[in-house]
Fold these 4 entries.
Entry 1:
Amino acid sequence: MEERRAVALVSGGLDSATILALAREEGFSVYALSFDYGQRHRLELLAAGRLARALHAKEHLVLRLDLDRIGGSALTGDGEVPKGRSGEEISRGIPATYVPARNTVFLSLALAWAEVLGAKDIFIGVNALDYSGYPDCRPEYIAAFERMARLATKAGVEGKAPVRVRAPLIHMSKAEIIKTGLRLGVDYGLTLSCYDPGPDGRPCGACDSCLLRKKGFEEAGARDPAGR
């Protein structure tokens, strides 16, 4: 049987852990792709490595990008990470943790690797419900990138099967994502969601990502195995 390959963007958080498991459930040989882009929470890459091993990725590639030299985001050192915000505040506007064009850059490199691998599917863990206002996490963005990929690739020009950008979590709440991962046996204790962890990897518990994670586990009626 011919190997079905997929590239999965794996940050080390619970969303990317879930999409990696979903891709495996569909029978894909998954090639995990992570980025060291100058993020202050670079410890997430250790979590990405743990997930790639635990969920049996065929390969885990970590690419270095100097997005911190461009700046424009609290995640790359420009300003403080917002903390202690209410759910209403989190859902309103584009936060300081938005990294300009991040998903466009990441998906473009995932597309390049998919072409080399002969993979027809790219999995990304974006979410349009419990998200922090990022414009590149919306369904219309994913659809637009997929259209662009058909124009920008050899396979698309030659009329072969186009690359699909798969965002299976995009219409799920954080609780639904967690329930899906638990059904698939994901160990969320391996993940790191925090935008501003301590040197020992301990989450701050107050950034938007920590708060959304806490809310998700509470609404899922599950205990966070990472003790958050």
Entry 2:
Amino acid sequence: MNFFKNSNLAQAWLVLLLATVFGTALAGIQVKLSPVIEANKTRETMEKIPDLVLDTSMATQTATQDLIIQSRVIEIEKNGITKFYPVYDVQQKNGSLAGHVAKARGQGYADKIEVLIGLDAGGNTITGLFILDQKETPGLGNKIVEKTWRDQFINKLSDTPLIVVKSKTGQPNEIDGISGATISSRSVTGIVNTTIADIRPRLLPIPKTEETE
């Protein structure tokens, strides 16, 4: 025991050993939980689609099963980098196109932020925003999940990049930043801007589904 107390080298090796053991254990847990986490995200995505493409009054009356949802992946290559955007094209049972929901992710202040972006049928207007996953600072950056902040994006035109400001001046493309969390605010806004710029030209025409007898 005295050897460990008096030997910095022994203590350093002990710390390294414990870090390796705990790191390996955490990695194993993460591998086991990953499929569960992704399944939960998929379920939550499907549940949020009506809210993201329909107005509140319609969404409360429209269950996911009342919509025809076709998923696809839009592939974008820019500057030698290929990005993949999962997109859900949403139709009502009468055949009219309700809108689209795109899933995207980008770097936040603390970790990756994953979002769902609702767009109208023509991809011209943002109809909703939902934060699917985030690990931002509690009490500051994690306020991006709050409805009052996210609702700023609704009805913003998609042909003009959004900007984060400390105090609005009346410009239609302004988003109020969260006090003390400018990076998180800009990260979400940047993800929205980049995603829309990438996928908007490819939203229409929608690939036809194969008819089954």
Entry 3:
Amino acid sequence: MYVAVKGGEQAIANAHALLAKRGAGSGEDRVATEQVREQLGVLVARVMNEGSLYDPDLAAKAILQAQGDVLEAVTLLRSYRTTLPRFGVTRPIDTGSLPPERRVSATFKDVPGGQQLGATFDYTHRLLADELTTPDIPAPDTEADEAAMPRVTDLLGRGALVEPDHPDDWGDPDPGDLTREPTTFPMTRAERLQALARGDEGFLLSLGYSTQRGFGNTHPFVGEVRVGEVEVVFDAPEIGHEVPIGRIEITECQMVNQFVGSADRPPQFTRGYGLAFGRAERKAMSMSLVDRALRRDEFGEREVSPAQDEEFVIAHSDNVQAAGFVEHLKLPHYVDFQAELVLIRQLGAEFEARRAPEKESAHG
């Protein structure tokens, strides 16, 4: 037994060394953390979202260490997050005053404040370029009035065409913290949004797509997508006032969905909401589609699809848990397999014993 343990330890050490060698690069070919942060911003944003930690430098470092494996990078970031001290909480960020780098709406062509395309792949030709270049970009219009960009859902709300962003009696309850408290069902919407924000982008994309194909009761329009930087304010009771501590880049999406009304609700548009770190439009849009699907109980809708099942969605959206459960199958299961092997042989012998009289009568 001691020899086997020693042999296993050496094999694991060798595996670590080989992994490090393959990911180290050589000389001038080595990729710097700054290059990943600046040139792979969308990937960095995904790792920050699913890792539940806004730090582009650490996310870039995790991507390099994981050799581009997104789930491994997310796991590294979450593990590091658990070592950080908690000093308090910040105030809710004010996305209403978000000065957007990008702001588009699919519901109104002439939306107040105008459409602002910003940096997007939406209109590219999807052709591989021979060489990446930096084109000249005209200087922005510094006289544009950023305050004249009201939310589209606020415009609809003035005519009671869309549900309020929260009920009148909702107040401002403190949301739970899924990173510190066990998950219990049913969840509040705030807790669900936390889980979706750190959920796997591909899984949420598939679920959101399924709702558009009829597996869910959604008829979505993109009310608005905004990308830009917002100020983060820390509530510091010991000094008696709030303190701005920096700015973060976020993506916000509000979907508006058709709702024909019910016995106690008027016909009006309903909302789906998504908020993500960095440039993450696909994540925010998928999140908002799934958020709306999971609100079925609020609108008296029947559960007819996986995207409407809260426990199914939340329990399977966490890619760290999913990867761990799938990949643990690679680890030794010798005892379990031997037990099943003995069982299969025993059942096979019993099966043959039952068939023996039938074979004798057939030959007789």
Entry 4:
Amino acid sequence: MKMWSGRFTHGPDAEFEQWQRSFPFDRVLLPYEVAASMAHASALAKAGVLSAEELAATLFALDQIGREGTPEADDPAIEDVHHYVETRLVELIGEVGYKLHTGRSRNEQIATDLRLYVREQIDEVTRLLAEFASAFVKQAEEAGDSAMPAYTHLQRAEPVLVAHWLLAYVEMFLRDIDRLSDCRKRLNVCPLGSGAVAGTILPLDREAISAQLEFDSPTANSMDATSDRDFAIEFVQVLSFVALHLSRWAEEFILFSTAEFGFLKLPEQYSTGSSAMPQKKNPDALELIRGKAGKVFAEATALFVGMKGLPLAYNKDLQESQQPVFSAAHQMSSMLRVAAGFVTTVELNYPRMQKAASSGFMNAQAAAAYLVRQGIPFRRAHELVGKGVRLCVEQSCELEQLSKEDYALCGIDANEHFYNSLALEEVLAIHNVPGGTAASRVHEALQTAKEKLSQFFGVAHACT
């Protein structure tokens, strides 16, 4: 029986009936529909709609429906997850099952179910992000004081510690965790009791319902509650940030895995070969992460476009807000699991990175800094060292290989202390500021990252 058929004399067109069904995709909301229905049933009993015996039977049947798991979508008569639960409930306990819908609407039900779903997905993505960031922390610990080139404009710029580079990604993903936390705070209000648009027709205890479902409070306005999907948009927007960061990371690791860089060895567990070229090992996992990021961006766009012209309150268009959320959450969870596995198993080529950090005039700024400490204005020091670089290019050598006479031609008095300032260890050490790549600062940053991540699963896990 349809949940709305009493007013109609004709059944729906067969094609339209199947076309408008949401059960093939919203059935994943079954656990949340059951939980929300249990809270509503308790409120109905408190309001005198259900007797104690009817409440017990209803809760027992709802629990059974939940334990049965996600149903198949093969019954064409079932419209949506709400219709399924009611139909199954009546099968289990008879006419009493029809009482459950007293004082509520599917408009508030889907708004509640979707909030519960998104809340759980936030917790899951947060956990996966923390595990992923912890894999970077572990790699940073293993890197010790190894160095590598840092790049601007994809040109060698200055040397940094490998750990400093890895921790840059940790910062990105910690920001994503903060965004998820903020989103969770805003979504954690309960629409139940909002009715179809104007509020429930019964004196239901909305505070008790909210508390039972672990929401912070009931929603403040019934019209907003039944039509709001800001929380869904915000959630997928945050996932877009995560996807953006994953894609940037994947791109850089793809570059660094090439023979031209050779900074890392692709793990075979996350690579494939070529059907034509026997020698190939391709970064398919990274390329797919980079590609799938676009799908997450697309889901965010779909939500924005779908919502932009909707008047208050509920419109059937909102049914189309579910699949982008489900898709983005699924894509993100799978991407993060693969990404964490990749970072856990990847091997970094420290000797190759260290060698690259010692060439390409990346100590030029350190040379200028030395001159500044001798009282030479930076703009003048920049020009003098630039002349030295030009001379190196002509002689095919590095700054530390120029003679004192060569430096004299550039206007630089190159003494022993000047040459010492060009050594890789000294170049790294002068960046001794919070957030800099000096070894002591990176060790501090590593400890801070471990402490931040420890709150998610314990210090031992974050550090191993």
